[in-house]
Amino acid sequence: MAGGRRLVAAAFMAVALVAFAVAVSPAEVADATATATASLRGAPFESIFAFGDAFTDTGNNPVVWAWYNVTDEVLRPPYGMTFFHGVPTGRNTNGRLIIDFIAQGLGLPLVPAYLSHKGSFRQGANFAVAEATALNGSFFDAQQTDVSLELQLGWFEELKPSLCKTDQECKDFFGRSLFFMGEIGIDDYHISLGMRKSMEEIRAFIPDVIRTITMGTERVIQHGAKTVVVPGMVPSGCLASILVALADADASEYDATTGCLKEPNEIVALHNSLLQDAVEELQAKHPDLTIMYTDMFNHVMEMVKSPEQFGFKSDVLTVCCGGRGRYHYNMSVACGDEAATTCKDPSTRLIWDGTHLTEAGYYYIAKDWLNAIVSSLSARASS
């Protein structure tokens, strides 16, 4: 039996790696993965379940904003222009997200948004919501949507009875599923910056965010999850939304090599470091499971430092879709507004709307994540 698992894992790794190696651009990934996965048998996952914020949300945020009688700009073009034939899907980008590329690489359908999908969730559900926080909204003394990780986990538990009935059936079902616990937490820090909290105040509650993510991971494990991916954060100090919001920073507060702000990036680096430690502790506690940290920070920094290597323009911090102003970003003109303009070729840009990445940026990160997921499965199958 162990030999059979090794063969399946080895075959899957070969197919998944070919799927991404063949695809030289994001636009070709769908065809490449479809061709490669057509010959795959015994795929290790039957479904994907995801929690998080805009970096993972595949369409929940418009529903949440509608609760507050607010129209979400992601329902207007040019969102969705690259992959979804110009039809906005609720994703905060021009095309696919990391989770979309991962699903395609695994031969699964794109993960449907829990709040807007009307069909079956047998092959997965996405509970992530743009601007969601790890901590409950009561932590922030401000008027905002209170879509925390706790609420998303509650939605998952509400859905569970429709997917499985007995404890054993649920453990079997979720054991064949891939879980994404995040990315989440970046909005906790961005909201706090908007509330003019000091960097010292923000650093003080980073451990609370980490504990919340750890709690969420433990919670899905209790339901039967055997493979959980826990992503880190992108470098906030390289995002136009933060660069413009903190435009009064002194020259010494910028990284001379990248043009990014140092201190916001240090906040994220601390978060990522503590998160990696927490994931290692979880893995030690559950040695029979696969609990893995995946990186966003270093991938984005690599693209910022060497944009030409990825086909991006040299002014890499300039966004594709936005209003007039430095970095083509204007806090009063959001992407999707009539006054906003969009770059001709989003594949030449890393950052889409000031906070989120383009499909091209997500593609390069997803390629690494998929390889890491497949490698971990192979290691588990051969142990």
From TrEMBL:
Gene3D superfamilies noted in UniProt: SGNH hydrolase (3.40.50.1110)
MF (Gene Ontology): hydrolase activity
Glycoprotein is among the record's keywords: yes
Alphabetized UniProt keyword annotations: Glycoprotein, Hydrolase, Signal
Signal sequence residues: 1-23
One of the Pfam families matching this protein, by short name: Lipase_GDSL
The keyword Transport appears for this protein: no
Record InterPro entries: GDSL, SGNH_hydro_sf, SGNH_plant_lipase-like
Protein name, per record: GDSL esterase/lipase
UniProt similarity note: Belongs to the 'GDSL' lipolytic enzyme family.
